[in-house]
Amino acid sequence: MIPYGKHHIDEEDIQAVVDVLRSGILTQGPVVEAFEQAVAHYTGARYAVAVASGTAALHLAAVAAGVGPGRSLVTSPITFVASANAALYVGGRVIFADIDPETINLSPDSLRKALADNPDARAVIPVHFAGLPCDMMAIKFAADQAGAIVIEDAAHALGATYPSGERVGSCVYSLMTIFSFHPVKAIAAGEGGMITTNDKAIYRKLLRLRSHGINKLDDPVQQPEQAECDGVPNPWYYEMQELGFHFRITDLQCGLALSQFKKLDRFIARRRILTKQYDDAFVGMRNCRPAQKTGRDMSGHHLYVLRIDFEKLGKSRGQLMRELKERQIGSQVHYIPVPAQPHYRRLGFRPEDYPNAQRYYQEALSIPLFYDLTDGQQETIISVVRELVG
After folding, report:
1. Structural domains present in the chain
2. How many CB atoms lie within 10 A of CB 164?
3. Nearest CA to 2 among 331, 349, 285, 255?
4. Which of 11, 206, 230, 310 has the greatest number of C-beta atoms within 10 Å?
């Protein structure tokens, strides 16, 4: 079976984990900081905070941005549920703005309308779908006009660049950017996430929030009479200064991630080649087309998605996925629109209110794309898709 996505692990990665095991420090150690520094340097951001998952990163970013009761967060309906759930975790309200049908990213026009209709909007989370950067200049301008903070969901986009040349994660258009290191992403940590920012106060707040809200670095103490004796700091003393979480990542995970990170450019280059070969193969097909056709030289190429006209094809998506599976080819759908999920329907959302997202969902199918996909395997996939889709 050729899966739709798969991590690459080599002996260097295994040795990196073994080295951490032999170091005697499994968590809250130097490898976490080394990984943070590597990501900050690569993206061009001043600071990076590693956390337990991309979802944890979104959660903490929402807290740090001030989303909460009486405030709302705007995001895309075509994303994993975590992008929207971040608002609910902190007692805020979710607003969805429709996608651009050509990029599958948050539509700036739809965003402007959502912000105008919801003056309580505190934050915007644009999602760089499949690794293609959003129109961040337009999104940042719209958010600034509305007094909203931008948090980029770059779970798919490590290694991607903006048209201006800066890397996604540099936070030139946002207060914070989050990444995910789930095994099917650009690099794997098992589970893991990262938040980058250029704001020192936000950085220090994130450090506290990921570890129970306890003071970090040289945060001023709030109870100095308890913190010291005769002017000398008490060595055992710490303060929980706000409500935080246990969202730390381990040195074991960061050891793997740091080893993987050294291969990121190679991973992205291979994904780019595979994407071009798919694009060339599917040009002019009757019943399907690539979901994204622009920005190929900027994308992180996390996914390769086809848009298939199943009505013209005369078969359902489920039938096609079963036929692909019979040929040992995995496929997936990214994503069911978040407003269509039962929990969100109970909150009053209707997927039909986002027609571009709904139309995309009816046609979407992700086919295999990962570093270890061979040219021979890809040729097989292309041949089978041509046969089954026409």
Report:
1. 11-261 (3.40.640.10), 264-389 (3.90.1150.10)
2. 10
3. 331
4. 206
